[in-house]
Amino acid sequence: MDLLIVGSIAFDNIKTPFGKVNKILGGSAIYSSIAASNFVRPIIVGVVGEDFERKYFDLLKKHNIDVSNIKIEKGKTFHWEGYYDYDLNIAHTVDTQLNVFLKFNPQLSSEAKDVKFVFLGNIDPVLQLSVYQQVKNPKIVACDTMNYWIEKKFVQLKKLLKKIDILFINEAEIRQLTKEYNVIKSARKVLSWGTKIVIVKRGEYGVMCFYKNKIFVLPAYPLEKVFDPTGAGDSFAGGVMGFLAYKLKNNNVLTEQILRQSIVFGTVTASFCVEDFGIKKLYKITYKDILQRYREIKHLVHFEMI
Amino acid sequence: MDLLIVGSIAFDNIKTPFGKVNKILGGSAIYSSIAASNFVRPIIVGVVGEDFERKYFDLLKKHNIDVSNIKIEKGKTFHWEGYYDYDLNIAHTVDTQLNVFLKFNPQLSSEAKDVKFVFLGNIDPVLQLSVYQQVKNPKIVACDTMNYWIEKKFVQLKKLLKKIDILFINEAEIRQLTKEYNVIKSARKVLSWGTKIVIVKRGEYGVMCFYKNKIFVLPAYPLEKVFDPTGAGDSFAGGVMGFLAYKLKNNNVLTEQILRQSIVFGTVTASFCVEDFGIKKLYKITYKDILQRYREIKHLVHFEMI
Predict the structure, then answer these.
(1) Distance in angstroms (rounded) separating the CA atoms of residues A286 and A38
(2) Cα–Cα distance for residue pair B27/B122, rounded to 1 Å
(3) Would the CB atoms of B306 and A294 count as touching at under 8 Å?
């Protein structure tokens, strides 16, 4: 029932049209592991600085997250500062301080190497590959990426994409990755490289999932107030991978229906994330809250046959 | 089984990344009536110039469209020229020649006045109101509008919105209309003005439909090649209204399920429109083709409950 998650652990300064916060806990590994912990026990692989106080470890442990693969290094924790205007789909970066993340070289514990489900959060594809190679016999491996790595580490990223089961990527990024404007053509290209499932994130418009020659489309859960979109993509991926790890734990086969359900769980989990700053709301919700929105979104897209 | 449609009849010059055409039949009344004619007999109310040859009337008549309320005036038919870049969501207008449309003053025949279903295509709200007032006892009245009228004729448009059942509007326009960024809040505002149903068009991302305190969301039918988006919104509205006019002809009540189904029919009809220039593909398809995509889109959004 474990899910290995590698990614960034950060302190963020965030400004949105609705307010401003400083030095709040963030990073892809944090959002995705809290999201996934509604379904399974996530094991975070990451690095923090000496300023990462004990209370943060406690906070993660309380949420059923294994922190024994988080390394504490001399120096400061990774820091990101950014803001959003009314178009909350676009994050404007003001400052990035890699700090201890600069020398991050993930080394998995023997327990972590045995994990069957792996989410390689958005970090250098070289590190993603390193983690991938350390895991002994994974059942499902997913990864996320971003424009920076597509530009700077295309060869390594493509090498990774050949091996993995699921790619989480946003619309602009898959266009950049494949040099195809049409998203369906883009996704087909990535599938032809070897990735088994491509999930394209379209922000407030939801997601499209491509596998074999099939497509699943799901709108986002409609919200009257999106407060802070930071972590939406990571909590989406965490929800998807958490549900898959839970559902396939007894060697069940990944069916089309389980895949579709996992995407609904991811969508619903992410909808809570964006309703408050950082992990504030995501941390508080329970599986019951998630199930409630799962039912609502089912009704939202329902229509009868003719 | 009739549907009254008022709107523009035009000759368009269109350029997309995939080609260029000159003087092709277009306009909101043309697209929406061809779309609707798969379900009912549309009656177009409009104006054309002396250059509108007999072959165009024949073409419409052949598609089960009543042209007896199209007036021929001295001068030239309305002309629009525009182009699209790779982001096919945005139409760039190069030239608009109103011509005979400048003095358009719709006068309904007695038959037209008795029609129960009305689509007021995107024209001056003053003319939309005039048509609305001429129809004796309509059952469902829908309208479309655009940024120009929101800016120039806000008072008249708001007067119309109080009276009608369905507003078709795109995302940017409803934000402009309501001065609300969030689309859900925007739609709620329009509902509070008196419009019963608000359908927000989101281009390649599909539609959101708001009624009472409920929401229906449907993605667009996924296409690998969008050739020419001209007329997508109008053929969508034509499909919705055509199905509603057909389904409610025997005094049936507009249920939530019928409304949702009509939106699926609109979506599917519009998906054919954008696959070739102008009305080329839309003109050729049959109800059987529409039904086929209805079934596909049903599968596309399907997922099982937990």
Answers:
(1) 7
(2) 9
(3) yes
Helix (H) or strand (E) holding A293: helix A287-300
Q: How far A205 CA lies from chain B's nearest CA (Å)?
A: 6
For the question of whether the overall pTM of this predicted structure is more than 0.80, the answer is yes
Rounded Cα distance between B202 and B129, Å, is: 26
Please provide the distance, in angstroms rounded to a whole number, between the alpha carbons at the two ends of chain A: 42
What would the pLDDT profile of A250-299 be if each residue is shown by its tens digit? Answer: 888 999 999 999 999 999 999 999 999 999 999 999 999 999 999 999 99
Concatenated DSSP letters of A11-77: EEEEEETTEEEEEEEE-HHHHHHHHHTTTSEEEEEEEE-TTS-HHHHHHHHHTT-B-TTEEE-SS--
Closest CA to A285 of A5, A108, A105, A39: A39
Chains A, B: CB contacts within 8 A come to: 87
List, for residues B9-63, the tens digit of each pLDDT value.
999 999 999 999 999 999 999 999 999 999 999 999 999 999 999 999 999 999 9
- The verdict on ipTM greater than 0.85 is yes
Q: Which of A181, A185, A217, A226 to substitute to test the interface with B, most B CBs within 10 Å?
A: A217
Residue among B128, B139, B266 nearest B196 (CA)? B139
One-letter amino acid for residue A155 of the chain: V
d(CA B60, CA B238): 14
B169 strand-pairing partners: B200
Identify all chain B residues contacting A257, using CB atoms and an 8 Å cutoff. Answer: 303-304
- Cβ <8 Å between B218 and A295: no
**Interchain pair A218, B184: CB under 8 A:** no
**Which strands sit side by side in the sheet containing B140-144, from one edge to the other?**
B66-72, B41-48, B2-6, B117-120, B140-144, B166-170, B197-201, B207-211, B214-218
